[in-house]
Predict the 3D structure of the following.
Amino acid sequence: MKTVSEERRETVVAAEVDVVVAGGGPAGLAAAVAAARNGADTLLIERYGCLGGMATGGLVICLVETDRYGYGICREVVERLSELQAAKLNRAGRGVLHWVEGASFSGEESWNFNPEVLKFVANELVAESGANLLLHSLIVGPVMKGKDVKGVILEGKSGRQAVLGKVMVDATGDGDVAAASGAPYHLYRHPWGVNLEFRMGNIDVEKAMRWQRENPELYGKLMEKLEKEVGKISWGRTFDDGVVWGHTPRYFWKVDSLNVRDLTRVEVESRRMIMGGLKFLRDNIPGFEDAFLVDTASQVGVRETRIIVGEYTLTKEDAVAGRRFDDVVVRGPFDIPYRCLVPKEVDGLLVAGRCISTTHEAQGVIRNIPPCLITGQAAGTAAALAAKKGVEPRKLDIHLLKEALRGQGFEI
């Protein structure tokens, strides 16, 4: 491969803090808030112009499993959205758990919400916690001293900068910082592929759903025609009256979600399908006659890429058996042990969100927004305590961490 040479350069250190959190999605948001609330000087870094990750920029506008992880910052998010009249219960939990391959357990509670209001709620949580925030900042690499992660390098409108910290939390989803630091990982592709979310408005939703129920055979034929002519488009009710939430086809081909060319292709083709689907629905489905496109997600919906290898790897068998661990930091239908947040072979670093240490089969049960909020809160709390005590995260006293988490409403 052809290469170019870059001159060696000195990079300005823009900040030195206790805890640096990479990524402002659900896990990173919760990690930064938790670290700051536990007394750490904290900086949260996000590449886009808003917090929330897939819950906002990705338009994944349904909080799933709020009954199983409805404590701590997850509960705060739901309560704040509800107080602002921006969330409503979509489905109550049904009690009986059944394993769903590639997803989680069935029977979960879920809430629909307004993503624009969640952007505001996320900003307020960070501001109130005392954490500092840098948006529009892309992390391009770690600052290393041997096997210790000492900071990160940023690129953005302000140029190239370095941020140093005592402890890092990688909540990038793809495990970007951990992987670049030398932590071992597995790279997987989720069997459901990737897709782009969208919303359409000015729809008589009740009319459309009633017609669908009364004409199942005709509706099925129309959807087959839509899939053949444009692509498979799905739609469903949202929090907002007259607005539906939709998905482009899940791309089953070998899309590499770490490859910008593949991501570009998915975005371009998805938006073409969305416009074609809008016209088709207007022409064929009662209730959609005057529909218009509200928005498309600014981020492709990626379910799985890197999974960091931690001191323990959570398995499907652990989840199905409801296994409990002495070093539990997240409790739901099963325990997530602290060791899943601690990468092997590097120090000064914790991971949170969908890249924590699991098997490919078990990853589906930890990647929804509520469990990501809770693993983020656990990681942020651990990072603050490790920075305060001056110890590596892997050597943190688990009893001290569990005591701190109990004080935040964790029943562990």
Notes: The first strand starts at residue 12 and ends at 22. The chain has ten helices and 18 strands.
